[in-house]
């Protein structure tokens, strides 16, 4: 099987240290079967000079400003011709045979719009990684979680998720997507800047009738937190704002208003919990996220009207927050499969 029409695109912003560490493996295990491209978001750390000196075979797309994750990929992929795009973080260690199983799966089922490999932690290779694990899911209130990771509880990989299954969202750290669909669906939402843009993108694919899959035969290792650390008020703001936006864009209208009322209450509880724990900037970030969302509703309405909305699979029909904190459910395997939409 030829993979010559596959392009691996790495979006870089001041990531020279990661490029030094992880790009050699990408080149080793991808050269000859995929084009390797670095899209640079106006780095100031000598990334470009490093690439030109050490990896002349890698194509560089250089931006004059930092477009963020979403717009950075959208702009880069305008200049890439391929059948499959692989969106790959700089802080990912790929392994031998990481491309072939995923492309084969997508070739065999044209209804697969996007797919992710098994995502393990680079710093503890026995464990799944926070940003994607063995595939992403979402509950009916918009809270994301993964097979292998529910909130801060991260499981060890004991081959319990070695089955290829349909999921709700594929990690943006290493997402395979059909190039034609990326363009038809409209790419990543520029307004998200970063965080949850992959969930929004995958939901739009599902609303268009395509599947998102997990391929356990491909394994990569992710450092995580390479752009913004977990305890960062900017990340808190983006996560809360973007989560409300993706719900508004993608939920059928008859469901959004009820869900949003409950989310307003739940977000308020989260905000005051931040305050009680002394995280004042996070408390402010949640408030700012809500106001930013309210002021963007007119723009979001225009995006909604461009989409079809349907009942989609793999949404957890309970509240994962309640199940985790009150019912003490810590493992994905403890969730009842009948509670997921089909």
Protein model, in words:
- It is a single chain.
- The chain is built from 11 helices and 14 strands.
- With 342 residues, it is of the alpha/beta class.
- A hairpin with a 4-residue loop joins strand 7 (136-139) and strand 8.
- The mean pLDDT is 94.
Write the layout of secondary structure elements.
Layout: E1 6-12, H1 16-30, E2 35-40, H2 47-54, E3 59-62, H3 68-77, E4 84-88, E5 92-94, H4 100-108, E6 112-121, E7 136-139, E8 144-146, E9 149-150, E10 153-154, E11 165-167, E12 174-178, H5 179-185, H6 197-207, E13 211-222, H7 233-250, H8 253-276, H9 280-295, H10 297-305, E14 315-316, H11 320-325
Parallel strand pairs: 1-2, 1-4, 2-3, 6-13, 7-14
Antiparallel strand pairs: 4-12, 5-13, 6-12, 7-8, 9-10, 11-13
Beta-strand share of residues? 15-25%
Give the helix proportion (percent range). Answer: 25-40%
Mean pLDDT: 94
Number of helices: 11
Oligomer: single chain
- Tell me the overall shape: globular
Number of strands: 14
Order of helices and strands: EHEHEHEEHEEEEEEEHHEHHHHEH
State the separation between the terminal residues, measured CA to CA: 33 Å
Summing up helix and strand content along with how strands pair, one would put the structural category as alpha/beta
Alpha-carbon Rg, integer: 19 Å
The largest sheet, given as strand count, sense and whether it forms a barrel, is: 9 strands, mixed
Contiguous uncertain segments of 5+ residues: none
């Amino acid at each position: 099987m030829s993979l010559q029409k596959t392009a691996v695109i790495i979006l870089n912003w001041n990531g020279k240290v990661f490029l030094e560490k992880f790009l050699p493996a990408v080149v080793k295990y991808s050269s000859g079967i995929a084009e390797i491209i670095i899209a640079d978001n106006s780095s100031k750390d000598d990334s470009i000079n490093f690439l030109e000196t050490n990896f002349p075979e890698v194509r560089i797309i250089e931006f004059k400003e930092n477009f963020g994750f979403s717009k950075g990929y959208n702009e880069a992929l305008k200049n890439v011709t391929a059948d499959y795009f692989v969106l790959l973080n700089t802080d990912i260690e790929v392994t031998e045979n990481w491309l072939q199983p995923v492309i084969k799966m997508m070739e065999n089922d044209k209804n697969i719009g996007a797919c992710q490999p098994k995502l393990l932690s680079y710093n503890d290779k026995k464990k799944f990684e926070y940003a994607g694990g063995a595939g992403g899911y979402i509950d009916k209130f918009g809270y994301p979680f993964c097979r292998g990771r529910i909130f801060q509880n991260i499981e060890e990989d004991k081959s319990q998720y070695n089955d290829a299954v349909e999921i709700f969202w594929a990690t943006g750290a290493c997402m395979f997507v059909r190039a034609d669909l990326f363009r038809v669906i409209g790419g990543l939402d520029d307004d998200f800047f970063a965080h949850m843009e992959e969930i929004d993108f995958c939901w739009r694919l599902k609303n268009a009738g395509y599947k998102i899959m997990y391929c356990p035969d491909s394994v990569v290792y992710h450092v995580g937190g390479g752009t913004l650390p977990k305890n960062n008020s900017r990340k808190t703001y983006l996560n809360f704002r973007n989560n409300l936006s993706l719900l508004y864009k993608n939920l059928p209208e008859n469901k959004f208003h009820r869900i949003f009322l409950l989310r307003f209450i739940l977000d308020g509880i989260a905000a005051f919990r931040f305050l009680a724990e002394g995280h004042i900037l996070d408390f402010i970030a949640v408030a700012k996220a809500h106001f930013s969302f309210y002021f963007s509703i007119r723009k979001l309405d225009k995006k909604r009207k461009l989409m079809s909305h349907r009942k989609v699979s793999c949404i957890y029909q309970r509240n994962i927050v309640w199940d985790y904190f009150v019912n003490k459910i810590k493992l994905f395997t403890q969730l009842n499969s009948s509670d997921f939409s089909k």
